[in-house]
Amino acid sequence: MRHLFFCIDGHTAGNPVRLVAGGAPPLRGGTMAERRADFQARFDWIRTSLCFEPRGHDMMSGGFLYPPTRPDADIGILFIETSGCLPMCGHGTIGIVSFGLENGFIHPREPGQLTIEVPAGLITVRYQVEEGRVAHVRIRNVSSYLFARDIVLDVDGLGPLTVDIAYGGNYYAIVEPQPGFDGLDGMSARRLVELSRRVRQAAREAVEPVHPLIPTIRGVSHVMWTDAPRAPGADGRNAVFYGESAIDRSPCGTGTSARMAQLAARGRLRAKDSFVHESFIGSRFTGRIEDTAEVGGYEAIVPSIEGSARMTGFNTIWVDREDPFWAGFQVT
Ligand code: PYC
Predict the structure, then answer these.
(1) Which residue numbers are catalytic?
(2) pTM reported for the whole predicted model
(3) Per residue in 197-207, pLDDT tens?
């Protein structure tokens, strides 16, 4: 039996985005968070077959468009990635919105803006079209906050490492330069993956953050290594680890949101400040603190992130149950 998926492939700031525009399974649930749980319970093979080898790779990431479950939203997005179904994905949203608009899969009620329901809540997007292309997308993300500061982890090979844990749609362990981590210069992606696995494991043993309003969002899933910027005009640089072996090629939307929340909580950024974030490959997102907020008793910010995406092609993928690797595989 062959399952067919029509995909629009591309990237946001260098990180892959696969918009699965045809083949989305019908999902049960009264919210996108419930639909996410239903997808994970009944259709996770679609994620693994489209994201893992041989149809994907370690960084593969994307999502499906759904009708929203609430009247104030234009669309719903379900994210898929090598690590699972993220509650929110910033680079994914920029790509999905761009490719969806450019190919007529998204019809905004008001041109130039969209309200989108994602498993982590409601986000809004503003975009500009230039010569038929979506040139820029700015996401007003979910409220983001610093969950814990100065957690000391004993990391094999690095010694004690002090991290903060912050939420920007996913929970991040944020590592700043310190004894044990000199910064990103001279660090290979391979070395970062190796160290990140240990840092994430140690962080998971130390704390289990749970979102105060959406308890299905829990646990440290990502590790962000930070450093001073390289290029003029940037404010910071990062390398984000996700899944089992991925270093984000984009500056990471939820990671930039978490970083801004951490810096705001530490008094290093203020409301209305912007924050230009460089990725591991030098691509950029421009973040901004739009407002202050509160998440279940935590002081929070409302971050926004701007970036752009490019399509690389259409991809009709089939998953053939006779294929020994129909559900995909990973090599770690
Ligand atoms: O942009 O939010 C993001 C993201 C999460 C994982 C990879 N990119």
Answers:
(1) 89, 252
(2) 0.98
(3) 999 999 999 99
